[in-house]
Design brief:
Layout lengths: L8 E2 L2 E2 L6 H21 L5 E7 L6 H14 L5 E5 L21 H5 L5 H4 L1 E3 L4 E4 L14 H12 L4 E5 L9 H5 L4 E7 L5 H13 L4 E7 L7 H4 L3
Parallel strand pairs: 3-7, 3-8, 4-6, 4-7, 8-9
Antiparallel strand pairs: 1-2, 5-6
Helix pairs in contact: 1-2
């Protein structure tokens, strides 16, 4: 994962390396390995990694969930996926089969329920999920960094990996409070939607918060292949 993978630009949009069906899992594997290496180099017992996009719809939720599932497949211990912000549920996403009235992250942060009551074990995904919650509207922004700090301290005692799907940086005031608790972030970039200006804004925002950039992942980019090759993929 190198941030310079989005260095080449065309028509103001990011251009990067190609991924195909068979290579996607391998690509996720390499991300897990590199994050795991970073974790070992910094002597972290628990790895808390954030995933963020510069706008909605770039694929950060799908990537964050896949990263969490792949980390479980690596036998890294108990892995938790955290919905750091509520958006519309995605097909086969973590909120599927979780009752909409179930308590979650914001309910715990507002002192309504214990953290353990919010965490859902998902055998179908092979991991644990901490949903956003339903007792409070997503526009309720009264939670400060101290509450997030206490919550993540507790999560670090239980899980070996925590993957946090962060909302768009400019949409919720609580994003900096939540993001400040992660050990590093992966920025998801969409070849068709992301612009250099907005991606730079996210990178600069993370720098202001002093959050290490673990890398950038490029979505929806593929080079055309001859049919005689593509039909085997």
């Amino acid at each position: 994962m190198r941030s310079d993978s989005i260095a080449e630009k065309r028509d103001g949009h990011a251009i990067g390396e190609t991924t195909y069906r068979g290579a996607r899992i391998a690509s996720i594997d390499s991300v897990v390995v590199q994050v795991q290496t970073w974790q070992a180099e910094h002597g972290l017992g628990t790895m808390v990694v954030g995933v963020i996009g510069e706008r909605r719809g770039v694929g950060n939720t799908s990537f964050a969930l896949q990263l969490a599932k792949q980390a479980t497949g690596f036998g890294l211990g108990d892995v938790l996926y955290v919905e750091g912000g509520r958006d519309e549920p995605v097909p086969n996403g973590p909120r599927e089969n979780i009752p909409i009235t179930r308590p979650g992250l914001v309910d715990h942060l507002h002192g309504q329920v214990e953290l353990e009551e919010c965490i859902v074990k998902r055998p179908d995904l092979g991991l644990f999920v901490l949903p956003w919650g339903a007792m409070h509207d997503s526009k309720d922004r009264a939670v400060g960094p101290i509450m997030y700090q206490h919550m993540f301290q507790e999560l670090r005692t239980r899980f070996s990996w925590v993957v946090v799907d962060l909302p768009v940086l400019t949409e919720l005031e609580t994003v900096p409070a939540c993001a400040s608790q992660v050990d590093g972030v992966i920025v998801v970039v969409d070849n068709q939607k992301s612009t250099e200006t907005k991606v730079r804004a996210v990178l600069e925002g993370m720098a202001i918060l002093q959050i290490p950039i673990l890398g950038c992942v490029l979505n929806r980019y593929a080079l055309p292949l001859p049919r005689w090759i593509s039909r085997w993929l």
